[in-house]
Amino acid sequence: MHEQMKRYKMLLEDALAASFFAEGEQDELSQAMRYSLLAGGKRLRGILCLAACEMAGGKLEDALPFAMAIEMIHAYSLIHDDLPAMDNDTMRRGKPTNHVVYGEAMAILAGDGLLTDAFWLMSGVPNARTLDALREVAHAAGSFGMVGGQALDMRFGAPYEGLEAVKAIHRKKTGCLITVPVVAGLMLSGASEREVEQGRQYGWHLGVAFQIIDDLLDLIGDEAQMGKHLGKDEAEEKMTWPAMVGQERARMDAKYETDAAVLALDIFGEKAAFLRQLAMNMLERVN
Amino acid sequence: MHEQMKRYKMLLEDALAASFFAEGEQDELSQAMRYSLLAGGKRLRGILCLAACEMAGGKLEDALPFAMAIEMIHAYSLIHDDLPAMDNDTMRRGKPTNHVVYGEAMAILAGDGLLTDAFWLMSGVPNARTLDALREVAHAAGSFGMVGGQALDMRFGAPYEGLEAVKAIHRKKTGCLITVPVVAGLMLSGASEREVEQGRQYGWHLGVAFQIIDDLLDLIGDEAQMGKHLGKDEAEEKMTWPAMVGQERARMDAKYETDAAVLALDIFGEKAAFLRQLAMNMLERVN
Questions:
Q1: Can you give B134-176 as a three-state secondary structure string?
Q2: CB neighbours of B27 closer than 8 A, spacing ≥ 6?
Q3: What integer is the mean pLDDT of B7-36?
Q4: Kind of pairing between the strands at A91-92 and B95-96
Q5: Inter-chain touch A143–B119, beta carbons under 8 Å
Q6: What are the backbone angles phi and psi of residue B184, rounded to the nearest 5°?
């Protein structure tokens, strides 16, 4: 597990570090894009894409541009979320946020560039399912998915209320971009429709578990280890899963979702060991 | 000419008005996206895509989602350009800009949503060249193209200087998104590589002519007719083509670029009448 994780992460980090935007590294836009893209992070989304593709017998070189692109989309969403007009965050992964370093205008453009270039990168993959996989990513990232979830979050989940509102926000804002790398990786591997749908179930439950665990860590986590200010959700009276149901019940829900994610992989047998373990390790962080 | 223009424009306006984002028309994000997308405008980019496809014998229904998507990308770029952190414009096409109506956060998300959903829309076209055409759009809109041009504009074209700086900004910021609808429309029609390249030349010269003419109109145009504040370039000492070479020479350059655009269409013979006339009519506005 650990070795395979390191292999995926290094493959991804190396490819991202070698990627190059517009007029070269001297260009301020490229610098701003690279600043956030190469700021570390777990690379969960990219790793899910590589692992799903390899699990189903696909070629890693087909999944790699998608893994990179989804990390680029994730990086853009963080840059825009951190803007003064949005969450107004000044620290992210232990470093000043993009707009603090490059200014608001350049941060907006860096996000726009990462998002657009992500589609350019995906479109270059010579695979029979490239267009289908790209379509899934666009759907997951746009107004039907992540951007829609961010807008929903801004109005506290309305028209939904209580836990239903939290679920709706989680599903769109975080869940979509955790589900889609699994779906895209499987499509590019040539997996059957049934396998793709099981992968979608896995990603779906993993995404819910991820968000509950993230909310829990904001309450109980270690600030230095997380590299960001914690307790912010509580201070801002944000609607989180533990705030709705309590810490105890939130832990149980995270366990239930993790079990459901693991179960969805049955169709892949032994080959799913990595993705199963990944889900279980995530749960370990709050136990 | 006039009838054909009206037909393309109506086809496009009707399709855009019928398009629907995320949770429906009641949703604030969808409203913000539609507010700017349906705010009128010449629809030059969308019309170029439809006309190029039809000129080369393609099906309008294949080009239509691309025409819509390119208008969505254009609309997003205007929303983000108008933001307080960028150009800080409060009026656009005779109406308050997006962030004035919906607030900065929603305006950022509306732009992000339009950009992402544009790729979703394009990816659904059942055509052998869909992926190639989508790739051209991504390249034209991202850090290699439009977003790169915006960043270049922010630093006054550096490292280029004088007219070279203006050319570099124009080429990327405006030219790419005027060239690419022609290229995409031709690709989707099944045109030959030589035809696509001639279309690219046409779009390229048309884009330069368009920007010179736009700069001239900011100096000599009628504010009520244009629906925006004029003279802003001069007041802000923006680097424009006429500011670099004078009005007289700028007019000559616009004429030269228009002639070059028209010439590039020779390969299409009589079928290019509409695109030729479109270029010549544009030039008429400053003569």
A1: HHHHHHHHCCCCHHHHHHHHHCCCCCCCHHHHHHHHHHHHHHH
A2: A148, A151, B21
A3: 87
A4: unpaired
A5: no
A6: -65, -45
Instruction: Supply the mean pLDDT for chain B.
Output: 93
Residue B103 pLDDT exceeds 90: yes
Q: For the segment A63-93, what is each residue's pLDDT rounded down to a tens digit? A: 999 999 999 999 999 999 999 999 999 999 8
For the residues B109-137, what does the mean pLDDT come to? 98
Question: Rounded to a whole number, what is the distance in Å from the CA of A177 to chain B's nearest CA?
Answer: 13
- Sequence-distant (≥ 6) Cβ neighbours of residue A221 within 8 angstroms: A230
pLDDT at B187 over 70: yes
Chain A residues with CB under 8 Å of a chain B CB are 21-23, 27-30, 33, 80, 83, 85-86, 103-106, 108-109, 111-113, 115-117, 119-120, 123-124, 130-131, 134-135, 138-139, 141-144, 147-148, 150-151, 154-155
Contact predicate B97/B91, CB 8 Å = yes
Beta bridge partners of A96: A91
Closest CA to B279 of B195, B178, B194: B178
Smallest CA–CA distance from A108 into chain B, residue:
B80
A37 has a pLDDT exceeding 80: yes
Asked whether the beta carbons of residue A123 and residue B138 sit closer than 8 angstroms, the reply is yes
Q: B88: domain range?
A: 2-284
Q: What is the pLDDT of residues A121-177, one digit of tens each?
A: 999 999 999 999 999 999 999 999 999 999 999 888 888 888 999 999 999 999 999
Query: Are the beta carbons of B134 and A142 separated by less than 8 Å?
Result: no
pLDDT given for residue A24 in this prediction: 59
Q: Extract the tokens encoding B131.
A: 């992926």
Q: CB-side exposure of B66: number of CA atoms within 13 Å?
A: 37
* Cα–Cα distance measured from residue A175 to residue A171, given in angstroms and rounded to the nearest whole number: 4
Task: Specify the DSSP class assigned to residue B175.
Answer: I
Structure-block tokens of residue B167:
């050319």
Indicate the pTM of the whole model: 0.95
Asked if B142 lies within 8 A of A117 by C-beta distance, the reply is yes
Helix axes B146-154, B176-189, angle to 10 degrees: 170
pLDDT attached to residue B230? 67
What's the token pair of residue A39?
A: 């700021």
What confidence score (pLDDT) does residue A130 get?
98
The domain spanning residue A21 has which CATH number? 1.10.600.10
| Partners of residue B119 in chain A, C-beta under 8 Å | 119, 134, 138, 142
Which one of A28, A131, A154 has the shortest CB-CB distance to B105? A154
Total of domains in chain B: 1
